[in-house]
Amino acid sequence: MTPNESDERPDGPRPTAAKLTVKGIPVDPNLRIMAVATLVNTFGNGALVTTFALYFTRVVGLRPTQVGLALSAGALVGLLVQVPAGHLADLRGPRKVLQAFTFGAGIAILGLLFARSVWALVAVMAIISVFDRGAGAVRNGYIARVAEGGRGVQFKAYLRAMTNVGISFGALFGGVALWVDQSWAYLAVFALDAATCIVTSIWLGRLPHIAPSPPRELGEPRMAVLHDLPFVVITLLSGVASMHFVVMELAMPLWISQYTSAPRSLVAITLMINTVCVALFQVRLTRGVDLVGPSSRAMARSGFWIAGGFALIALASGQPTWLAIALLCAGTLVHVVGEMLGSGGQWGVQMGLAPRERQGQYQGFAGMGFSLSNIAAPTLITLLCIEWGRPGWFVLGGVIALASALMVPASAWALRSREHYGVLTHSG
After folding, report:
1. Which is nearest to 56 in space by CA: 190, 252, 168?
2. In the chain, what are the domain boundaries?
3. How confident is the model at residue 148, as a pLDDT?
4. In terms of DSSP H, where are the helices of 59-182?
5. Is the dihedral of CA 237, 239, 245, 247 positive or negative?
6. Residue 377: pLDDT above 60?
7. Is the pLDDT of residue 191 over 50?
8. How far is residue 282's CA from residue 392's CA, in Å, rounded to a whole number?
9. pLDDT beyond 50 at 319
10. What is the model's pLDDT at position 10?
11. Is 162 within 8 Å of 287 (Cβ atoms)?
């Protein structure tokens, strides 16, 4: 079937999808395995993220700029490794490659126990990123291969909800280490995160084996995704739209503490609002978002929700405390609706446009949009939202809304190109 046929379904309405869960437990055994792996792995990640910066500044004695340098180096390496990792999974079979990358991440994290200088930390973070971002690219490609029939977006939605749950509990565990505030407590957290990766890699062996992709056809480029201009454009647009994640992590705490009369503790409350909403409603808000057309339209809607949330947050400056709190909480709620809609739409477009046998390299390339956003967005967001102030929030919201809206014509262009060349994709 061609992408156009699968997307428009001229033969009648979309068939009713099977239930994803029963009493919160996934029906599909593959999703159950991946859900447990996600909970275990993100528990360790949440604990690590909570303690990482404070350990290397307070205990090791590095400057915050040096810690930032190490994180940036890791982000850059992670950007470069995703497509080759996904391509390797296509060639060798994704399950074994996913296990290898996840195990490698666990071993690499142990390097944090011995990093005592900025350059040692840079090296360790670069090695961690090779395995961690590589595993992420392979995992996304595996989901797209194993969750066919339009279930890929639902799988991703459920796993994202589990990610939020795992990170939240991991953050509580990391909070205990912060309370103890001793070197051994921080190091125990790092060792725990390494152990969760190793355990996860073994557990992933329960997933079914997927055969490697067939050899390239005569004249087919080794990295076909790099020659797919519509998909490249969609990835760039997704990267621009994804800047809102960095806004909520970086600009929101600074905005609350420096520009509003709301108490600083509201930072934790807004984060809790976000994580709880994602855990409860992410799956529900992605129902029916499985094909390329509906997915791109969901992304377009998400941009306006995000821009609306930013506008409410911007208006909180200069207001009485009660009104500032109300506007910030309302803005957070409006934003998270856009976040959930946009996440589902992005997954549907990226998985739907990728050829079935090249999901690894395509999902690896799709992840580069988010990585680019993480590299470029912090400086831009600081200039707009913090240095410029209220107008910067309006401008950034408009940019994200525009990028999200452009996903509709960009996706239509991509579908036409696949129909023209007869590319077999996973759009249905």
Report:
1. 190
2. 28-209, 223-428
3. 65
4. 64-92, 94-109, 118-146, 152-180
5. negative
6. yes
7. yes
8. 28
9. yes
10. 30
11. no
Contacts 24+ apart (CB under 8 A), 262-265: 262/316, 262/321, 262/324, 262/325, 262/328, 263/321, 263/325
Angle between the 152-180 and 321-353 helix axes, to the nearest 10 degrees?
130
Per the model's pLDDT, the better-predicted residue between 234 and 371 turns out to be 234
Distance, CA of 266 to CA of 279 (rounded, Å): 20
Q: How confident is the model at residue 392 (pLDDT cuts 50, 70, 90)?
A: very high
Do 223-428 and 28-209 have the same topology in CATH? Answer: yes
DSSP state letter for 383: I
In the three-class reduction of DSSP (H, G, I as helix; E, B as strand; rest coil), residue 242 is classed as: coil
DSSP for 210-228, written as a single string: -PPPPPPPTT--TTGGGG-
**Per-residue DSSP letters for 12-68?**
SSPPPPPPSEETTEESSHHHHHHHHHHHHHHHHHHHHHHHHHHIIIIIS---HHHHH
Token pair for residue 283?
């799956």
Residue 13 has which token pair?
């309405």
- 48, 173 in Cβ contact below 8 A? no
Name the DSSP letter for residue 425.
B
Task: Place 7 in a pLDDT band, splitting at 50, 70 and 90.
Answer: very low
Task: State the pTM of this model.
Answer: 0.81
CB 289 within 8 A of CB 300: no
Cβ–Cβ under 8 Å, residues 373 and 243? yes
* Alpha carbons 221 and 240: distance in angstroms, whole number: 28
Listed residue (77, 75, 67) closest to 118, CA to CA: 67
Superfamily of domain 223-428: MFS general substrate transporter like domains (1.20.1250.20)
Query: Which pLDDT score, from 0 to 100, does residue 261 have?
Result: 95
Buried b (16+ CB within 10 A) or exposed e, 147-170: beebbbbbbbbbbbbbbbbbbbeb
| CATH 3.40.250.10 applies to domain 28-209 | no
User: In this model, does residue 17 exceed pLDDT 60?
Assistant: no
- pLDDT of the residue at 64: 77
Residues 6+ apart with CB under 8 A from 98: 89, 135, 138, 139, 142, 204, 207
| Residue 208 CB burial class (10 angstroms; 0-12, 13-18, ≥19) | exposed
Query: Cα–chain-centroid distance for residue 255?
Result: 24
Backbone angles phi, psi at 22, to 5 degrees: -125, 115
**Residue ranges of the alpha helices (H) in 242-320?**
243-246, 252-259, 266-281, 292-314
* Bridge partners for 425 per DSSP: 355
